[in-house]
């Protein structure tokens, strides 16, 4: 399921620029451990000739980008670090 979501994301990425196809220049690597945790990376060259990359993890906490030059920095220059997709429910805190 996680791998299907990742591949779907890549397809959406490729379809986002129909005039400038990047399909021939996508590199994808991934590994699935015994617990079902997927780690991997993908990269491509954008239409301007820049190499773009994303390193990710997909586990019980969801899909999270660990490192990327595609993800823009915030105004405080904060970039993806793998924690941005980990959320706890307020409802689960109320049950305790």
TrEMBL record:
Keyword terms, alphabetized: Cuticle, Signal
Signal peptide as annotated in the record: 1-16
GO molecular function, one term: structural constituent of cuticle
Record-linked InterPro entries: Insect_cuticle
Name this polypeptide is given: Cuticle protein
């Amino acid at each position: 399921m996680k791998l299907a979501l990742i591949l779907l994301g890549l397809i959406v990425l490729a379809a986002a620029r129909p005039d400038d196809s990047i399909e021939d220049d996508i590199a994808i690597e991934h590994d699935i451990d015994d617990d079902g945790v997927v780690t991997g990376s993908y990269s491509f060259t954008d239409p301007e000739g820049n190499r773009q990359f994303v390193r990710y993890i997909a586990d019980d906490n969801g899909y999270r980008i660990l490192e990327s030059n595609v993800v823009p920095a915030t105004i405080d220059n904060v970039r993806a670090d793998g924690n941005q997709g980990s959320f706890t429910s307020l409802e689960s805190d109320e049950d305790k």
